Input
Amino acid sequence: MKFGVLQFFSWPNRRGELPAVYQRAFDRVELMDKTGYDTIWLAEHHFTDYSVCPSVHMMAMHFADRTENLRIGTAVSLAAFYHPLRLAEEIALLDVLSGGRVNWGAGRGFDPIEFAAFGVPIEESRERFHEAVDIVLAAWTNERLNYQGQFWQFDDVEVLPKPLQQPYPPTWMAAGSETAALWAAERSLSIMMSPHTTFVENAEMRENYRKKLEEHGHSIGGRDIPMARLIAIADTDAEAAEIGRAGVEWLAASYINPEKAAGADSNEMMTMDPELAVKRYMDSVVIHGCPESVIDQLERLNEEMHLDYLMCAPLSHSSFLKFTEKVMPHFQ
Output
């Protein structure tokens, strides 16, 4: 089993100074580099203290400079908000400067606040995202780019630099919905699974993704399919549940918003009663317990739904440390 961390830069209730949030992430990534993690995956968000990291590519360069072994991933670049040539350039430059350690994850976004502030009509988000991904991959694999789409047109553009990894960095599409997973499957693009969908939803999505791959002549074999999961670990199951509940309650207050239900990749949890949403997270989304209990849960998920790449989103720093020291070594 491979392990990565989905790194949010949360600033709960704006306690303390924001630079301390970043410093803790720097300390975390240096420990990850020495303990066998595969990738640090950076979450891009805008205009919220849910995660204060508006430039995952700039942050990724800081992380690359502090590490030697760890791969540096985006989870995700919100591609619909970018000029696609600038996006292709930035990821390629990051790949060159990091020595070929980039994993590129791309996503569509869902938050109407972000779309409104960037002046991108949310009803165009799917098509803009699809075009951006197509253009980035074409810019990396062609000496000169020619492209005629609905939103972007380019004639004989040389996009430099090209990525160090050839033909391009390992690439994933965020799959917060089955529609997104099936679109990726048609193009033989790998997927990463959301930290907000339930275990059952993920299992069903993975199976339908596999079937769609095969329909189009592709195989799921040999692909890493990271599953992002919120994690809470403590010395006892009861203490871990307290950590999990506190984290989920704050997350629910930040993430669950009826206005966001009109977003690009909304789901029913956004419109739930907060108490019901917290219960659903704790029952069906969060992995929580003492280290031994978490090991048992991961082994069961591996057997039942092919979990072979866990992208951890720790709900506390102590959870991250216990996972690193007491859970991950069991699988190495």
